[in-house]
Amino acid sequence: MYEEFVRNRITELRIKKGVSEYQMSYDLGHSRGYIYNISSGKSLPPLTELFAICDYFEITPAQFFDEKISHPELIQKALEGLKQLDDSDLLLILNHINRLLK
Fold it and tell me: Would the pTM count as exceeding 0.85?
């Protein structure tokens, strides 16, 4: 079950990023078939490589495994920006979020 999730999540994030399996393999420093082998179920990345894949997508491992997040890279960028705001700005953003969710 988790193996399939990892394969599908990598494929989903790779497609959203607009890179091929070959390009992602190359960017991660592996042979051209590395991501293909993961996506096809021939292998799974070791934990250290999964962390590198998360870094590649600019997300945390928690965001990688949260299937409810369809665009974890955007959520991560938003969180990084929110961390730099003061309390009054955070409240303003929270009000906007609440209004959009209505």
Answer: no
- Rounded to whole angstroms, the Cα distance separating 35 from 50 reads 11
The mean pLDDT value of the chain amounts to 93
Nearest to 36 by CA among 20, 52, 13, 17: 20
CB neighbour class for 18 (10 Å; exposed up to 12, middle 13-18, buried from 19):
exposed
How far apart, in Å, are the Cα atoms of 19 and each of 6, 33, 66?
17, 14, 22
Which CATH number does the domain 2-101 belong to among 1.10.260.40, 3.30.450.20, 3.40.50.1360, 3.40.50.1240? 1.10.260.40
pLDDT tens for 23-53 read 999 999 999 999 999 999 999 999 999 999 9
